[in-house]
Design goal:
The chain contains 9 helices and no strands. The chain is mainly alpha-helical. The radius of gyration is 20 Å and the shape is globular.
Length: 184
């Protein structure tokens, strides 16, 4: 009897033949999902100065592991999981004071609009940073990424009711924080 081993590539079938899953090329994944990965990294608190490096690290993992992608979940779910693992070390490495010094001021072309957008984004990020991570992630994925709560529930591997509860509590915390910043 012939025993199957890792050394028998002639007997191995491509993933598409076994599962019917068509694995996209790295270039297709990168082009279609780079912005999503960037936003997920921001959601996990990766500082602006480290986003480029963190995104590169995510796509190095994607490049290495893409042939193993089995299609059991959406590609965005898989990318989310990779970005989540990459974000932690990047978030811890960067000193916040150094990040603030490195930020560039907008050019003279539309300074007021650019400063207003930057201030609004900084306010939202500051509010998000006050939330605990579980609520922040659900809030960002639903409200900022416009994903459905059932999709977020599957991505995070949590109960659907838990996802709805975290979203409700995060919305309440966000609204309260906005109100406290608007009213003196």
């Amino acid at each position: 009897m012939l025993a199957l081993t890792n050394r028998m590539p002639s007997l191995a079938l491509p993933l598409e033949a076994v599962t019917g899953v068509v694995v996209p090329s790295f270039d297709e994944v990168y082009a279609a999902h780079f912005a999503f990965v960037w936003r997920v990294l921001r959601t996990f608190g990766v500082p602006e100065s480290s986003l480029e490096d963190a995104a590169q690290d995510v796509f190095v993992v994607v490049h290495r592991r893409l042939p193993e992608f089995e299609g059991r979940a959406a590609i965005t779910t898989w990318l989310f999981a990779i970005a989540r693992r990459i974000a932690g070390p990047h978030r811890r490495r960067v000193d916040r004071a150094a990040e603030q010094l490195a930020e560039e001021l907008p050019g003279p072309t539309d300074t007021f609009a650019a400063l207003s957008r930057a201030q609004a984004a900084a306010t939202v990020m500051a509010i998000l940073e006050t939330m605990d991570e579980d609520k922040r992630i659900v809030f960002a994925l639903v409200e900022l990424e416009q994903l459905s709560v059932p999709d977020v529930s599957r991505m995070l591997e949590i109960n659907l009711n838990t996802a709805y509860s975290r979203l409700r509590l995060a919305r309440q915390a966000f609204e309260a924080a906005v109100r406290s910043r608007v009213t003196p």
